[in-house]
Amino acid sequence: xxxxxxxxxxxxxxxxxxxxxAAIERHRGEPGATMxxxxxxQEIYGYLPEEVQIMIAEGLGxxxxxxxxxxxxxxxxxxxxxxxxxxxxxLGTACYVKGSGAILERVCRKTGCKAGEITPDGKFSVxxxxxxxxxxxxxxxxxxxDVYGRIVPDNVDAIIDGYLDGKK
Amino acid sequence: MxxxxxxxxxxxxxxxxxxxxxxxxxxxxVEIPTLCYMKDINAIGACRMCVTxxxxxxxxxxxxxxxxxxxxxxxxxxxxxxxARKRTxxxxxxxxxxxxxxxxxxxxxxxxxxxxxYGVERVRFGTPKDMQPQFERTTLHLVRDNSKCVLCRRCxxxxxxxxxxxxxxxxxxxxxxxxxxxxxxxLSEVACVSCGQCITVCPTGxxxxxxxxxxxxxxxxxxxxxxxxxxxxxxxxxxGEEFGDPIGANCQGKMAAALRRLGFDGVxxxxxxxxxxxxxxxxxxxxxxxxxxxxxxxxxxxxGWIRFCEHYFPELIPNLSSCKSPQQMFGALMKxxxxxxxxxxxxxxxxxxxxxxTAKKYEVRRELDDAAGGVWDVDATITTRELANMIxxxxxxxxxxxxxxxxxxxGIFSGAGVIFGATGGVMEAALxxxxxxxxxxxxxxxxxxxxxxxxxxxxxxxxLELPDGGKLTLNVAVASGLANARKLLEKVKSGEKSYxxxxxxxxxxxxxxxxxQPIQPMSVRNFTDLRSERAxxxxxxxxxxxxxxxxxxxxxxxxxxxxLGKPGSHxxxxxxxxxxxxxxxxxxxxxxxxxxxxxxxxxxR
Lengths: 168, 605
Fold this sequence. Notes:
The structure holds two protein chains of two kinds.
Chain A: H1 14-27, H2 34-45, H3 50-60, H4 64-73, E1 85-90, H5 93-97, H6 100-111, E2 117-118, E3 124-129, E4 141-143, E5 146-148, H7 156-161
Parallel strand pairs in A: 1-3
Antiparallel strand pairs in A: 1-4, 2-3, 4-5
Chain B: E1 3-8, E2 11-16, H1 21-27, E3 51-54, E4 61-62, E5 73-75, H2 79-93, H3 110-117, E6 135-136, E7 142-145, H4 154-162, E8 169-171, E9 178-180, H5 197-201, E10 207-209, H6 213-221, E11 226-231, H7 252-262, E12 266-269, H8 270-292, E13 297-298, H9 303-312, H10 326-342, E14 349-355, H11 359-363, E15 380-383, H12 384-393, H13 415-418, H14 425-439, E16 457-465, E17 471-480, H15 482-494, E18 501-505, H16 522-525, H17 530-543, H18 554-564, H19 570-576, H20 587-593
């Protein structure tokens, strides 16, 4: 289970908070308002940390346990922000049989980050994804939107180094 | 009442219209097994134990939620239903840490009982021999072990629907699903009020109270300690259930006898300090009515309610009575008045309380209560259940016990003290005394029926003729169960309602239904109102007593004459009153944000 209490400090802005309050206002009183507000909140913040979930709970008058119950149930919600370098490794069937498990392992070793988490300095986030639809390129790794196909674990370090110090 | 005719296992029967299949079967005297179902608050059809055959229905139906209809043929005991239930049990057990022999709920476990009844001798899907316990013990009152949890969500319903506290819920999904707090914080990091209602509804050993009996045994074995015990009013209304007595039997005499045989040096009753609470709180009410403080005055006997107020309604703290609870008054008086009378050093007195309550385990370690200075008012508190375990372990045969009295030094009390254990009881006890004090006469009126009964919120108007010819009308309200309390307090806050005096007890029905009381399986609780049955034991004891007003008790008179002076005196304030702290609704989160560490609840002084 990925860690839920993210290690990265919360850096929400006043503007983000105002947008969230407006979303809560729009949905207040609706039956089942929790989900749509959570979806909007994730659009605003990119993830749902405890700070944001408490705002939602207080704003809608629902228990925090209910908000968290929903966010930990659905895969669409994430409790960690994305890092400066955002890495996804495809674990779809084709990639997996082509050895993406070893790729993910190397990525985690290189970045010091577990799948589904972010490093405390906010530099790296790593996701293990389902099929990204590029099976012809298996195994596939995506870094900040750039797709790298037909790679082997030994390629990983060099690819990631290419994103350090604002290189890309 | 409208009824419908149904056939249950071939027998024609009548059931109230609107019944579920489960209720219709019950009307025919047939019990359908359940695990997750709780009448009115948890009908979710989740555990699938109650699957039952209904002629014409496609497949088996979940009896707890499936409505019964006119002419319906219900077959509860078909092979098909038996097989399905047994399979369900095997699946639950395949993910259950079975250590029945050493489990605190051995022989009082709903899962164990069903497994036996359904003849589950082997779990085909593998028995989890290597399953590890998942203990969480971060609070003073509760131990959670999710390796015994069956995910029935009864605790979630109790916490959310009965208490509107909602600090636990189902987290994650599929095999990873587990009951926990938001962000899987420890229970000590969230605003749990320690009421223990979750424990009394847990079908298995996943939720239990912290066992404080080892400390009590150790104190009893320590010759240098003078060990005294006091019992709360509600304990006598339920302890007998642990020994097979019927629900609602008053076992006061046997309880006192058992405590004496356990070796306590003083066998006392917290009912006496309930009488003292009436005196102090009554004086406080009269003072506030005369303009000396905010109204409504709200009672402070229930530590679950106190924590609820501190976490969720901190703005009402000025309205709380400053009186310590009867338990804390008992301890404070033991370590001051009693110590002096006996010529004992307060440090050598070990005070044990027996309570129907788990929040008392928190209360005895509240940072604010140490009347004698440097020692706790109460050293250890055990629940009704823990006392039963002690009696059993000591080999004391319940049915051979004589009926005995408490020790007279702190064992004579009024009927007003007895009814403290039921919702409305503190209010009624206070009214008996306040009415006499305000009118300056000894009134014949003793019973205030409007504040009795198990309704969530009760209101009454009490008109009193004052000695100067004027009239005083007291508006009072009583709430039990924190969800009901929340509703009432919202109305008070909005100005929709205004009262002079409010009694709040955290547990629905009051202490008789407290989180430390004997656990009755849901098959009993769904069809027997434990609250009213146990309360009857207290009200009939009160009715049979000669002494029914707190201020007429000889011990109360003696305490004021020789020690305290008068209610609300300086020394009474030092010993019998306390203060409260506004606390966060998200304590762990707020502490982290401020870069602080929450003090551990179990920290010893």
